[in-house]
Structure formats: structure tokens, C-alpha cells
Amino acid sequence: MKKAFVILLIIVVIFATLLGVVVNIASKFALFDIFISMTPTTTFLSKTNVLVLGVDNAFGHRSDTIMLLHIDPDKKEASLISIPRDSLAILPGRGLDKINHAFAYGGAELSRKTVSNLLKIDIPYYITVNLSGIIDIIDSLGGITINVEKRMYYVDYAGGLYIDLKPGVQKLSGKDAMGYLRFRHDGGDFKRIVRQQNFLTSLAQEMLKRDNLLRSPQLFLTLLSYLDTNLGSKEIFGLALSLRGTFELGHIKMATLPGSDLMVDGIYYWKLDENRVHNIVQEYVHAKK
């Protein structure tokens, strides 16, 4: 139960880069928060990289969200690099393909190896989240407030997808929130990534409200059923502590891998700019400008 609880904690932080409080599932909120503030992080986790994958089964068994989290507990710094899902990459044992296909072929482990080879860095850990579970999570929270930036309408009867959102600040149900995330008809993957970041920031803010944090443990058990990771309890706890300190200092940087459009036999790819990708890795992972 302790490991399960800390896993839930870390997911909110990674996707929204926000962590102001930590929840004790036994409701001892204040004492646990004081313990977190006083506990050193270096004994739990050293500087490392974690691959974060969001899998949306509505679009096949592929990783719809791919992010690299770099954390440096000693410096209280973190970086989050988004990797466009259509990026052309070499999948070990498969050859050239879209990077999000790695999860379909070999799960989180093949995705981890693919991103590690692509960025030329060691990535020992991964965390996978089933995005379909967001519907249940948001409904458990009573909805989520989002500023829908434009009219969004799309119907796919075969795929069972119906999106009908009007612009403006509004409280969305779990189903409508997933429609906001899944909308793909406004100019490509980069707008979707920005929309995703806005959504997850709002989700974290909603979850970190005290009323939701002290709610029935059923909410956290719901979250747990959608998570998978190869991090041990010690590493998860260290990661949570490190990200907390990083957020408080405002030492979180974010970037998206640059490139250009590429069509091959009628199939769209995102061709990464190797020089610019190298520069991003140097700055965001190796701290060299």
C-alpha cells in the first residue's frame, strides 16, 4: 500500500510539473507533510532519467504521450522533454518507424530502449499511465475546469468518438475532458502537446485541493489501477521528494524536440533535427548551454 500510494503521488507531479503537498492515505496529512519537508532526498535517488508514457487505447495500443523526465536531486532541478509521437526513430529489432509504435511492439521496455538510443543517454526507469482512466479520475473529482481555446467538434462513429466543445472557461466531465485531449484537427501534434500540458496542469491543481486530497481512498485506488512502473519504492519516494523541492524553487524546464514534416509513401512522420535535439539534450539533461 505504501508503494502504491507514492506511485499515485509521483504521476501527478510528472505530468503537470506541480507538487505542493503529499497525501497520507490514512488522513494524517499534516504530520506526513512535515516529514516530507524534513527528509533528505539524496539517500533515496541520485541524478537520473525517467521515461513517462501515456497510453490511449482509443487510438490503438500505442504511447500517445512520450516524455523524458530528468531529475537532479542535489541541484533541485528537473527537466521535462516532450517527444512528438510521430517522430521517426530506429526501434531496436524493428528498424525505422514512428516512435510511438515502440510501445505496441514491445511495451514500455522497447520504448525505453528506443528513446535511450535516440537521445544517446541512459534511461533506467519508466512510468506508464493508461490515459483512458482519466475519465474515471475526473468524474471522481467532480469535473475539471479548463479554458477551451476554440470550438472543437469531431465525430467518429466507427471509433466511438464524439467531441463537441465550445470555447471558454468551463467545467468538463471526464468524457468531455478526454475529448479535449483527443481532439486532433487543429494543426498537428504540437498544438495537442500544448493542450495536453494545459489540461494536466489543471488536473494537478484540482487533485491537490485539500478537499480532494482528504477524500475517500477510493480515488487513489482508482488512480493506481491505471499505472505501471519499474521504479522501486525507494526510488519513487526519492523522486517525489525531489520534485517537490524542485517545484518550490521553480527549477523546472520544459522543451519539445524540434524537427520538420516528412511524408514517406503517404505516411506522415516528424523528422527530428539531430543538431537541435543534441543541443536540447546537452542543455536539459547534461546542463551544458
Automatic annotation (TrEMBL):
Q: Which InterPro entries match?
A: LytR/CpsA/Psr_CW_biosynth, LytR_CpsA_psr
Q: Where is the Cell envelope-related transcriptional attenuator domain?
A: 62-208
| Record Pfam families | LytR_cpsA_psr (PF03816)
**Domain of life according to the entry:** Bacteria
Recorded hits in PANTHER family, A to Z, give: POLYISOPRENYL-TEICHOIC ACID--PEPTIDOGLYCAN TEICHOIC ACID TRANSFERASE TAGU
Family per similarity comment: Belongs to the LytR/CpsA/Psr (LCP) family.
Q: What protein name does the entry list?
A: Cell envelope-related transcriptional attenuator domain-containing protein
